[in-house]
Fold:
Amino acid sequence: MRRRFISLALPLLAIALGSGCVVETNTNPFGGTVTLSGSWQINGVQADASNCAAAGISQVELRILDSSAANPQSYQTWNCADGFFDARTDALLPRLFHGTYYTQWFAWDAGGGEVGRSTPLLLDVTIDSDAGLAPPNFVTGPIGFDPTLGGSVTIHGSWLINSGPADATSCGATGLDSVELRILEDGGTGQYSYQTWACATGSFDGRTDATLPRLAAGRYNTQWFAYDASGAELGRSTPLLLDVSSVTDAGLASPDFTVELPAPELDVTLSWAQDATAAPVYGTCTEAAVGDFFFALNNAAGALVTDSNSVVGADAAGRIPCANSLSFTDLTPGTYSLYIDGAALDGTKWMATCDALIVDTGVVSYDCFVDQA
Structure:
């Protein structure tokens, strides 16, 4: 069946970043040494012969635009079922000059008709010799499937992350950037992209937001998708029935996107007192002439988590050469205290307990000032 384009998710490009001046190129970007690699998706799934045929997409084209998003040049056109390309292993594919460009993807049917296209996205290869492109997601549906035609039914809903509310903190910690809701044809294959929101938005309500689509009365399925900042899919819900045959508004069940969080890390910068005054000057190990030290990290209950005995090279008393920082990984979220005991060959002693070190997610940094005892 011939199918029409409904919507296209807009993933961000995995930009190759570098420093230095921006190199402007002429209208022909090809002939340099920079290689590209990438892939494309059909309705959120890696493209293959089956889903390309079902979507009515015969070929996929990548174009390179100059730094003003003009003067498009065709990089290459592939059979949709190829699914990916890699110029690092295919010497026939063009190489780019170093510079800044935009990339844009196009999907074509067997007759050369356009099925969909992406928005031009930045590609910065001023320094790098290779860049991987985030995959475009061509979302399609059969002719005639549009649940909003003539509709007046509003819907509202929200989404969860690891069973908690979606907000800037939880979205940032898990790497979730955007959340998409799709309306699926009940008993059919049609899909309609209802809306994509920033993850931290957390909810939507068609009753108070007149810009959101209204559905026609009927039976549908709903499915949620979560993406990272590059447009890669991080999760999706199971399709659920939505029956709005005889209601004017419906609340959707909240999807719960479960994303494994990396164990938090605690980084502590140590500053050593250079004198024993009431307001000492602090400095590095060398500036304060500290020889060696012992440390112990304890949890909120006072139980030892780790100490300097675990460091390679520690002596029989667990003492190690002076350091200006300590890092602790694979911690359980909680509150910690760090005990420090330093010494110099001339008998000078240092001591401190830095407490209330709260570790939740990601990398947490603290400063610890160690006074002369």
Remarks:
- Residues 182 and 193 are 4 Å apart (CA to CA).
- Residues 3-141 form a domain with the Immunoglobulin-like fold (CATH 2.60.40).
